[in-house]
TrEMBL record:
Residues 38-50 have a biased composition (Low complexity). Pathway: Cell wall biogenesis; peptidoglycan biosynthesis. Residues 188-316 form the L,D-TPase catalytic domain. The keyword Flavoprotein does not apply. This is L,D-TPase catalytic domain-containing protein. One of its GO terms (biological process) is peptidoglycan-protein cross-linking. The active site is at H266 (proton donor/acceptor), C292 (nucleophile). SUPFAM superfamilies: Cell wall binding repeat (SSF69360), L,D-transpeptidase catalytic domain-like (SSF141523).
Length: 317
């Protein structure tokens, strides 16, 4: 009995020593579910992920990529309809429109201070045209041409009415074909064509003359023709080379410039007064004078102001 009691005592003491150890082992080997869920993994700079509460990932996670929207093209405004106005070329024919409507003009018509002629089909006439026994010339846009014009290999004078006047050769087939052969003691050279009633003013020197001015004149009539020849202006005897005016009763002539002797460039005839106010005889483009070369007032003044003594002046038929 004593041995049995002793065994029981030793066995009891052993159990007392083992139980605390088992409790510690159980505590270390188990965790509550709440502790497990609240565990957070941390990452360093090596790029590992960090797990936050409830298992959500935080840290170096990439945001989802989004595709950029393609900008929408702005719609272009509708083109405005073309409104036809003025002269319109249609298949080589020129018509006149107003607000998209073709105007059925026929015959003579003045538009924007220019004169045109419309045929029976309402198109403007271009080139040469015979109208009621008279010849007229229109440019490529239908405008009526006046004055000296080159047609083919000839030169024609169309009066201010547009009707064909005298027929002459091209200027280059006249004296002016040799214009480069003339010399002058100044930078100016003047040619006067008596039959064409025209004055040509050149600038430059022998061999390189360039036409600077040209204008109609009223040279001598048949009974008192303008002298022909080659002259150095202002070098022959005379009362003056230039003046503001002189009187040739009953008229006054403005801005005279002497050619040779009693032959002058000067204005058309005015009634005597302190200024050139009232024209007595303004004709040019015809033989009308007593031998001088009459010019429109502004042309006479231009020669007066620019042409100097010893300028060569050639007068020819």
């Amino acid at each position: 009995m004593k041995q049995v009691k002793k065994f029981m005592l030793v066995f009891g003491l052993s159990l007392c020593m083992i139980m605390p150890v088992m409790a510690d082992v159980h505590a270390e080997g188990t965790t509550s579910s709440n502790d497990t869920q609240n565990t957070t993994e941390t990452t360093g700079d090596n790029g590992s992920t960090t797990q936050g509460e409830n298992g959500n990932q935080t840290g170096n996670t990439e945001e989802p990529k989004t595709t950029p929207e393609t900008p929408k093209e702005e719609s272009k405004p509708a083109a405005k309809p073309v409104v036809k106005n003025g002269f319109i070329n249609e298949s080589g024919k020129i018509y006149f429109y107003k607000n998209n409507k073709r105007l059925n003009y026929k015959g003579w018509k003045k538009i924007n201070k220019k004169i045109y002629y419309f045929n029976k089909k309402h198109a403007v006439v271009t080139g040469q045209k015979k109208i009621k026994k008279s010849y007229f010339l229109f440019n490529s846009k239908g405008k009526l041409m006046t004055g000296w014009q080159n047609v083919g290999n000839k030169r024609y004078l169309f009066k201010t009415t547009g009707k064909l006047g005298v027929i002459g050769k091209r200027l280059k087939e006249d004296k002016s074909k040799n214009v480069q052969g003339y010399k002058s003691d100044t930078k100016w050279l003047i040619l006067v064509d008596r039959s064409a009633h025209k004055v040509y003013v050149y600038h430059g020197k022998k061999g390189s003359w360039k036409l600077k001015k040209s204008f109609l004149c009223g040279n001598g009539k048949a009974s008192t023709p303008t002298v022909t020849g080659t002259f150095k202006m202002g070098t022959t005897k005379g009362r003056y080379f230039k003046a503001r005016y002189f009187d040739s009763a009953p008229a006054r002539c403005w801005w005279p410039t002497r050619i040779t002797g009693g032959y002058l460039f000067h204005s058309v005839l005015y009634y005597p007064s302190s200024t050139p106010a009232r024209v007595m005889d303004g004709r040019v483009g015809v033989g009308v004078s007593h031998g001088c070369v009459r010019l429109k007032l502004n042309n006479a003044k231009w020669i007066h102001d620019h042409i100097t003594k010893k300028t060569t002046c050639v007068i020819y038929n």
